[in-house]
Amino acid sequence: MQLSKRLLAVSNLVTCTGCLADVGTDHGYIPIYLTEAGKISRAIAMDINKGPLERAREHIRQKKLEDRIETRLSDGVMALQPGEVQTVVIAGMGGNLIQKILREGREILFQTEECILQPQSEIELVRKCLQEEGYCIQEEDMVWEDGQYYPMMRVIHGSMNLLDIIEYRYGPCLLKKKHPCLVRYLKQEEEKWLGVLQKLKERHT
């Protein structure tokens, strides 16, 4: 299966080979890709809405993976049993919703080995939530696709050093390795704010 650049980057952060749960699975592309590639043993594709879940079921049927990928109607991770999965993927949704899923599913998520998160917004607040909830950021990636930047991360349970405001905003791992996509983003931000500053100067001359 050919994944988008964003979904491929999310998939590449998965390290556990056991059972994976994909929250908000939509078309079911991530579980299908990882199962076909032999990177996971089985998967549970979950969504809060019946429509996306039916699309996922159809794609799973087309790939003849019904014996390895199960579908469940679920609000966040609430349809999972503690200890049932090793990896949880939460990608392609707003940061506020991801924080809600992390907090409400605390008991279930506590027994996973890793979470792969790709917030579409409020990523600074997601990183703060992770610290509050006892997670440690192990790896981060960032891609540019269809005119947007997509940061993402792999987290495990454990404490991490208190992040400063820059690390919360841009990601400790991305900053440490001077990720080329982050550098490109920062240069664009610099140009934008320099342009704003120039306009302010022109208005006061």
Short structural description:
With 205 residues, the protein is of the alpha/beta class. Helices cover 43% and strands 24% of the residues. Helix 2 links the parallel strand 1 and strand 2.
Describe this structure in words.
This protein is α/β, with parallel strands linked by helices and 205 residues long. A seven-stranded mixed beta sheet has the order 3-2-1-4-5-7-6, sandwiched between helices. The protein is globular and about 70 Å long. The N and C termini lie far apart (58 Å).
**Strand order in the sheet with the most strands:** 3-2-1-4-5-7-6
Percent of residues in beta strands? 15-25%
Q: What is the terminal separation in angstroms?
A: 58 Å
Mean pLDDT equals 96
What tags apply to this protein structure?
single chain; 205 residues; alpha/beta; seven-stranded mixed sheet; 24% strand; globular
Secondary structure: elements and pairs:
Layout: H1 5-12, E1 19-23, H2 29-36, E2 42-47, H3 50-62, E3 69-73, E4 87-93, H4 95-104, H5 106-109, E5 114-119, H6 123-132, E6 135-145, E7 148-157, H7 165-170, H8 172-176, H9 180-203
Parallel strand pairs: 1-2, 1-4, 2-3, 4-5
Antiparallel strand pairs: 5-7, 6-7
Helix pairs in contact: 1-2, 4-6
